[in-house]
Amino acid sequence: MSAVRIARSIGFVLTAAILAVSGTYVVIDLARWEWNRAIISALVMLAALIVLMSMMLFRQLHRIEQRLNTLERRRHDAPDALDALRSTNNSVARRHFRWLERSQDQLGVFIPVLLGAGVLLSLAASLVERIAGLFAAATLDQQTIRELAPDVPLGSGLIRTAERSSQPTTRRRSVNAVVVMVTVVVSLGAVGVLRELTQTRPKEVTAAGTTSILLDIEQRRQFRPIQVVAEDLWGSCRSRLPGALELTAITQLNAKQVEIVFDRALGHTGRVRITGCLEDLTLDLVRADVLAIESFATDDG
Question: 53, 97, 115, 258: which could form a disulfide with 230 (CB 3.0–4.6 Å)?
Fold first, then answer.
């Protein structure tokens, strides 16, 4: 195997791996309600898909170019039958189709009759061909092709194509059908899982009570008071939760950790929503990790 083919194989494998990983993270980020990360992963997946399709397209075009070059070389190497016939017949002067010459004493009715008969015969042959095509399948006599192979001017290019096209494709079709069915099943399952994880359940979002969120905040290049950053994060993610929410307290625990408390208890869906938003790179140059989230519901909710 040449170095070029090894490089192409490595590039193909890496692109396929990037496509698979980015597609997996799209599903994971959507399940976590992290929309910004999901968009980034989807863009990477789309770029990898375009690169992979381009590689496959260029590969097929390269194969077609190689086949055309092979046929062109064989055509130049084979003797030109037309030149051979011309060189053989140039020494003898012949007058072909003398019946086409003008004659003063004969009526020129032969040519219209010949043309009309040709048209009728062509229509009849076309009709027979169409009728035969309805009842006969495409067949290929391999033995006849092998016997005529030495007489084909262009070599074995056409025969190789015919042999390839005549190979049984039942196994390939079965594999393709299985792959399509598995892909459809996996896609439907992924859609169902995403629907289950991202649908809105009002009873599981908020209820009467309190919720405490422990955040670890990391800033880059520009540093602001951690309480201000936490308040900005809360303002950005407040819209993810329905109902009237009131921020109760923001308490700084150390240089990087802060506790946010508000006056509603969150169910499972609500906790997933707010966690996904806070960890979703909502603010520029700010990374937040939810270390703990606790909700305490009251009896009147």
Answer: 258
